[in-house]
Amino acid sequence: MTAPVDFYFDFSSPYGYLAAQRIEGLALAHGREVDWHPVLLGVIFKETGAVPLTQVPIKGDYSRRDMVRSARFHGIDDFRLPSRFPIPTQAAARIVIALKAQDVALSTHVAKALYRAYFADDVDISDPEAAADVAGRAGANRDRVRAAVDDAAVKDALRKEVARAIERGVCGSPFFIVDGEPFWGLDRLPQLERWLGSGPY
Amino acid sequence: MTAPVDFYFDFSSPYGYLAAQRIEGLALAHGREVDWHPVLLGVIFKETGAVPLTQVPIKGDYSRRDMVRSARFHGIDDFRLPSRFPIPTQAAARIVIALKAQDVALSTHVAKALYRAYFADDVDISDPEAAADVAGRAGANRDRVRAAVDDAAVKDALRKEVARAIERGVCGSPFFIVDGEPFWGLDRLPQLERWLGSGPY
């Protein structure tokens, strides 16, 4: 195994959710693992001046249509835009960051469960209790992850992860870095795949 | 032939240039023609609050890299980011709009020549003289298209084309509409292709 694919995502990012369904299979087909990095688009948007797509005039209508069509295009049947969207994602991100320090495989499993809860089952994972419930059902210690949401050291670890992402040029979600090469967007998976398959082009 | 693919683009849009190299072949493979609509992103950006990608912190660096890689990915060898970028594109757009009223095939041919002049040959087509030279070499009447740039009726026709585009939800470049379905971005060509091939999904 060579270096993993760094996968940056926000739990409130629809295209991040769709990419999360595809990136592992794609990476594994090329002998790579995936390193899951939850980040906060709100912090990144302060740097880039962006606002959530669905809140932009004209683009908002387009993007809601495009998200649903993109899910169908990629054969992902369980996607729907949640009742509350977008949401703050600190709770979910802190849970994953805290777990990652102890058990990477479990943290990835919980990340997928949190994403699915929000985008497939319409659970509002901005609520720390709801997020901890999801993590608990996915195999984490429910009380410990609930405590992690309010843990100053975990908050600090997430802040550092987001700052490091911005330093590395992460400007949206999903965002991938492969051997130093950045790829932004679900729609860059074909370019990423070629890079994994045949190297730099 | 069923209804054409409406192709909206700004002459200063790199992804628009790349899409312009691909859209005709793709449409023709499915029995469709392409209706080329030059628009002004500056006017559209006033509605959506956007700024040119390359001027956005973090995204600027990423997008310059992505534009060049996307050209290579799509096998387009002559693309380079022009010395002056972005540029106002009224002159080029008015020339195409004026020609389109008389000779659609010639207007499409001139549109391609103008795009190539800017993105392959680094000609600053914001200059009405330079744009008219390009159109003249591509087969248009050089003096007549030069006059069209300052023609009040042509200016008004372009304004109406842009207003109509905004009404139809065009929020960027390239932007395609097929049988009422909108597709935004070079990276939506695969989704557009499936739509042309097997209908709504």
List the helices and strands and how they pair.
2 copies of one chain form a homodimer.
Chain A: E1 5-9, H1 14-20, H2 23-28, E2 34-38, H3 41-48, H4 59-73, H5 90-100, H6 104-119, H7 128-137, H8 142-149, H9 152-167, E3 175-178, E4 181-184, H10 189-198
Parallel strand pairs in A: 1-2
Antiparallel strand pairs in A: 1-3, 3-4
What does this protein structure show overall?
Two copies of one chain form a homodimer. Chain A has helices at 14-20, 23-28, 41-48, 59-73, 90-100, 104-119, 128-137, 142-149, 152-167, 189-198, and strands at residues 5-9, 34-38, 175-178, 181-184. With 201 residues, chain A is an alpha+beta fold. Chain A has a single domain (5-198), classed as Glutaredoxin, CATH 3.40.30.10. In chain A, strands 2-1-3-4 form a four-stranded mixed sheet, sandwiched between helices. In chain A, helix 5 packs antiparallel against helix 6, helix 5 crosses helix 8 (142-149) and helix 7 runs antiparallel to helix 8 (142-149). Chain A starts with a strand and ends with a helix. The interface between A and B is medium-sized, with 32 and 32 residues.
